[in-house]
Protein backbone atom coordinates (compact mmCIF):
# COMPACT_ATOMS: atom_id res chain seq x y z
CA UNK A 1 0.00 0.00 0.00
CA UNK A 2 1.22 3.51 -0.83
CA UNK A 3 2.33 5.41 2.27
CA UNK A 4 3.21 9.00 3.09
CA UNK A 5 2.67 11.35 6.04
CA UNK A 6 -0.82 12.40 4.90
CA UNK A 7 -2.00 8.81 4.45
CA UNK A 8 -0.42 7.86 7.78
CA UNK A 9 -2.57 10.52 9.50
CA UNK A 10 -5.71 9.28 7.73
CA UNK A 11 -5.14 5.60 8.52
CA UNK A 12 -4.13 6.21 12.13
CA UNK A 13 -7.09 8.45 12.99
CA UNK A 14 -9.40 7.06 15.66
CA UNK A 15 -12.41 8.46 17.45
CA UNK A 16 -11.15 9.35 20.92
CA UNK A 17 -13.55 9.32 23.88
CA UNK A 18 -11.16 9.94 26.76
CA UNK A 19 -9.32 13.25 27.06
CA UNK A 20 -6.66 14.71 29.32
CA UNK A 21 -7.38 17.94 31.20
CA UNK A 22 -4.70 19.75 29.22
CA UNK A 23 -5.38 23.07 27.54
CA UNK A 24 -5.12 23.58 23.80
CA UNK A 25 -3.60 26.75 22.40
CA UNK A 26 -5.64 29.24 20.43
CA UNK A 27 -3.13 28.87 17.60
CA UNK A 28 -3.86 25.14 17.42
CA UNK A 29 -7.61 25.85 17.26
CA UNK A 30 -7.11 28.39 14.49
CA UNK A 31 -4.94 25.94 12.56
CA UNK A 32 -7.66 23.29 12.76
CA UNK A 33 -10.30 25.75 11.53
CA UNK A 34 -8.05 26.98 8.71
CA UNK A 35 -7.63 23.36 7.64
CA UNK A 36 -11.42 23.09 7.49
CA UNK A 37 -11.51 26.09 5.19
CA UNK A 38 -9.17 24.39 2.73
CA UNK A 39 -11.70 21.65 2.01
CA UNK A 40 -13.48 21.72 -1.37
CA UNK A 41 -16.52 24.02 -1.40
CA UNK A 42 -19.28 24.32 -4.00
CA UNK A 43 -18.82 27.42 -6.19
CA UNK A 44 -16.38 28.74 -3.56
CA UNK A 45 -19.30 29.80 -1.37
CA UNK A 46 -17.94 28.33 1.89
CA UNK A 47 -21.42 27.65 3.23
CA UNK A 48 -20.31 26.73 6.75
CA UNK A 49 -19.51 28.35 10.06
CA UNK A 50 -17.80 26.98 13.16
CA UNK A 51 -18.91 27.92 16.67
CA UNK A 52 -16.24 27.52 19.36
CA UNK A 53 -18.22 26.76 22.52
CA UNK A 54 -16.17 27.68 25.59
CA UNK A 55 -18.89 28.97 27.93
CA UNK A 56 -19.47 26.36 30.65
CA UNK A 57 -23.13 27.24 31.13
CA UNK A 58 -23.86 26.83 27.42
CA UNK A 59 -22.02 23.51 27.46
CA UNK A 60 -24.12 22.26 30.36
CA UNK A 61 -27.34 23.24 28.58
CA UNK A 62 -26.28 21.45 25.41
CA UNK A 63 -25.30 18.26 27.24
CA UNK A 64 -28.43 18.20 29.38
CA UNK A 65 -30.86 18.92 26.55
CA UNK A 66 -29.38 17.07 23.58
CA UNK A 67 -27.39 14.07 24.85
CA UNK A 68 -28.90 11.18 26.79
CA UNK A 69 -26.07 8.65 26.32
CA UNK A 70 -24.01 8.56 29.53
CA UNK A 71 -20.57 7.73 28.05
CA UNK A 72 -21.01 10.47 25.44
CA UNK A 73 -21.79 12.98 28.18
CA UNK A 74 -18.63 11.93 29.99
CA UNK A 75 -16.23 12.51 27.11
CA UNK A 76 -17.97 15.76 26.18
CA UNK A 77 -17.34 17.05 29.71
CA UNK A 78 -13.68 16.01 29.46
CA UNK A 79 -13.00 17.55 26.04
CA UNK A 80 -11.44 21.02 26.38
CA UNK A 81 -12.51 22.12 22.90
CA UNK A 82 -15.99 22.03 21.36
CA UNK A 83 -16.57 23.22 17.82
CA UNK A 84 -20.09 23.17 16.43
CA UNK A 85 -20.06 22.76 12.66
CA UNK A 86 -22.95 24.47 10.89
CA UNK A 87 -24.29 24.85 7.40
CA UNK A 88 -24.37 28.62 6.90
CA UNK A 89 -26.22 30.42 4.12
CA UNK A 90 -26.96 33.51 6.24
CA UNK A 91 -23.57 35.05 5.54
CA UNK A 92 -23.78 34.37 1.80
CA UNK A 93 -27.31 35.79 1.57
CA UNK A 94 -26.20 38.94 3.41
CA UNK A 95 -23.18 39.28 1.11
CA UNK A 96 -25.37 39.03 -1.98
CA UNK A 97 -27.74 41.67 -0.58
CA UNK A 98 -24.82 44.07 -0.06
CA UNK A 99 -23.68 43.40 -3.64
CA UNK A 100 -27.24 43.92 -4.96
CA UNK A 101 -27.21 40.42 -6.40
CA UNK A 102 -30.49 38.52 -6.49
CA UNK A 103 -30.62 35.62 -4.03
CA UNK A 104 -32.42 32.73 -5.66
CA UNK A 105 -31.12 29.69 -3.80
CA UNK A 106 -33.06 26.53 -4.55
CA UNK A 107 -34.22 24.88 -1.32
CA UNK A 108 -32.93 21.41 -2.20
CA UNK A 109 -29.52 22.55 -3.37
CA UNK A 110 -29.20 24.92 -0.41
CA UNK A 111 -29.78 22.06 1.97
CA UNK A 112 -27.60 19.47 0.22
CA UNK A 113 -24.68 21.68 -0.83
CA UNK A 114 -24.52 23.24 2.62
CA UNK A 115 -24.34 19.84 4.31
CA UNK A 116 -21.70 18.60 1.84
CA UNK A 117 -19.57 21.73 2.32
CA UNK A 118 -19.75 21.49 6.10
CA UNK A 119 -19.04 17.74 6.13
CA UNK A 120 -15.95 18.13 3.93
CA UNK A 121 -14.66 20.89 6.20
CA UNK A 122 -15.35 18.78 9.29
CA UNK A 123 -13.24 15.90 7.99
CA UNK A 124 -10.33 18.24 7.24
CA UNK A 125 -10.54 19.55 10.80
CA UNK A 126 -10.43 16.05 12.28
CA UNK A 127 -7.36 15.16 10.23
CA UNK A 128 -5.67 18.44 11.12
CA UNK A 129 -6.25 17.73 14.82
CA UNK A 130 -4.85 14.22 14.39
CA UNK A 131 -1.77 15.53 12.60
CA UNK A 132 -0.80 17.78 15.53
CA UNK A 133 -1.22 15.09 18.17
CA UNK A 134 -4.81 15.77 19.23
CA UNK A 135 -7.74 13.38 19.43
CA UNK A 136 -11.32 14.06 18.41
CA UNK A 137 -14.81 12.63 18.29
CA UNK A 138 -18.03 13.77 16.64
CA UNK A 139 -21.28 14.04 18.60
CA UNK A 140 -24.04 13.35 16.12
CA UNK A 141 -27.14 13.73 18.30
CA UNK A 142 -26.77 17.51 18.02
CA UNK A 143 -28.63 17.54 14.69
CA UNK A 144 -31.82 16.34 16.41
CA UNK A 145 -32.20 19.66 18.30
CA UNK A 146 -31.53 22.40 15.72
CA UNK A 147 -33.82 25.05 17.18
CA UNK A 148 -32.53 24.57 20.71
CA UNK A 149 -28.93 24.97 19.51
CA UNK A 150 -29.97 28.05 17.55
CA UNK A 151 -31.45 29.58 20.71
CA UNK A 152 -28.49 28.76 22.95
CA UNK A 153 -25.91 30.01 20.44
CA UNK A 154 -27.89 32.87 18.81
CA UNK A 155 -27.79 31.30 15.36
CA UNK A 156 -29.68 33.37 12.78
CA UNK A 157 -32.08 31.99 10.19
CA UNK A 158 -30.32 30.08 7.38
CA UNK A 159 -27.72 28.64 9.78
CA UNK A 160 -28.26 24.96 10.60
CA UNK A 161 -26.23 23.16 13.33
CA UNK A 162 -25.07 19.77 12.05
CA UNK A 163 -22.47 18.11 14.27
CA UNK A 164 -20.36 18.85 17.32
CA UNK A 165 -16.63 18.15 17.20
CA UNK A 166 -14.92 17.45 20.53
CA UNK A 167 -11.13 17.86 20.55
CA UNK A 168 -8.46 17.32 23.17
CA UNK A 169 -5.25 15.56 24.08
CA UNK A 170 -6.09 11.84 23.93
CA UNK A 171 -6.09 9.81 27.13
CA UNK A 172 -6.54 6.50 25.30
CA UNK A 173 -5.24 4.74 22.21
CA UNK A 174 -8.20 2.92 20.64
CA UNK A 175 -7.57 0.10 18.22
CA UNK A 176 -8.77 0.61 14.65
CA UNK A 177 -12.42 -0.16 14.05
CA UNK A 178 -13.06 -2.75 11.31
CA UNK A 179 -14.32 -1.67 7.92
CA UNK A 180 -15.90 -3.51 4.99
CA UNK A 181 -13.21 -4.96 2.68
CA UNK A 182 -12.57 -3.08 -0.57
CA UNK A 183 -14.12 -5.87 -2.63
CA UNK A 184 -17.44 -4.99 -1.00
CA UNK A 185 -17.46 -1.19 -1.10
CA UNK A 186 -15.56 -0.57 -4.37
CA UNK A 187 -17.78 -1.18 -7.39
CA UNK A 188 -16.84 -0.84 -11.04
CA UNK A 189 -19.39 0.31 -13.62
CA UNK A 190 -22.30 -1.22 -11.73
CA UNK A 191 -23.40 -1.98 -8.19
CA UNK A 192 -22.95 -5.53 -6.89
CA UNK A 193 -24.45 -6.72 -3.62
CA UNK A 194 -21.91 -8.48 -1.34
CA UNK A 195 -22.08 -12.27 -1.24
CA UNK A 196 -23.31 -14.17 1.83
CA UNK A 197 -19.76 -14.99 2.96
CA UNK A 198 -18.83 -11.28 3.07
CA UNK A 199 -22.00 -10.51 4.99
CA UNK A 200 -21.24 -13.22 7.55
CA UNK A 201 -17.66 -11.99 7.96
CA UNK A 202 -18.87 -8.45 8.61
CA UNK A 203 -21.46 -9.68 11.10
CA UNK A 204 -18.64 -10.80 13.38
CA UNK A 205 -17.14 -7.29 13.59
CA UNK A 206 -19.77 -6.05 16.04
CA UNK A 207 -21.36 -7.64 19.07
CA UNK A 208 -24.45 -5.46 19.12
CA UNK A 209 -26.25 -4.74 15.87
CA UNK A 210 -28.99 -2.54 17.31
CA UNK A 211 -28.95 0.31 14.80
CA UNK A 212 -32.20 2.03 15.77
CA UNK A 213 -30.36 5.22 16.73
CA UNK A 214 -29.58 7.53 15.00
CA UNK A 215 -31.21 5.94 11.97
CA UNK A 216 -34.66 5.32 13.41
CA UNK A 217 -36.22 8.21 15.30
CA UNK A 218 -39.76 8.38 16.70
CA UNK A 219 -42.09 9.80 14.05
CA UNK A 220 -42.99 12.72 16.34
CA UNK A 221 -39.31 13.66 16.67
CA UNK A 222 -38.76 13.41 12.92
CA UNK A 223 -41.69 15.76 12.35
CA UNK A 224 -40.38 18.15 15.01
CA UNK A 225 -36.89 18.22 13.46
CA UNK A 226 -38.29 18.85 9.96
CA UNK A 227 -40.47 21.67 11.32
CA UNK A 228 -37.44 23.25 13.00
CA UNK A 229 -35.38 22.94 9.81
CA UNK A 230 -38.06 24.91 7.98
CA UNK A 231 -38.17 27.53 10.74
CA UNK A 232 -34.39 27.90 10.41
CA UNK A 233 -34.68 28.45 6.65
CA UNK A 234 -34.04 24.95 5.29
CA UNK A 235 -37.26 23.69 3.71
CA UNK A 236 -36.56 20.15 2.56
Uncertain ranges: none
Radius of gyration: 19 Å
Would you list the SSEs in sequence order as H and E?
A: HHEHHEHHEHEHHHH
Main sheet? 4 strands, antiparallel
Structural class of the helix and strand makeup? alpha+beta
What is the 3D form?
globular
Give the CATH topology. Answer: NADH Oxidase
Percent range for helical residues?
A: 40-55%
Strand order of the largest sheet: 1-2-4-3
Number of strands: 4
CATH class: Alpha Beta
How many alpha or pi helices?
A: 11
Measured between the Cα atoms of the first and last residue, the distance is 42 Å
Structure description:
With 236 residues, the chain is of the alpha+beta class. The chain has one domain (5-177): NADH Oxidase. Helices cover 47% and strands 12% of the residues. The chain has a four-stranded antiparallel β-sheet with strand order 1-2-4-3, sandwiched between helices. α2 packs across α6. It starts with a helix and ends in a 5-residue tail after the last helix.
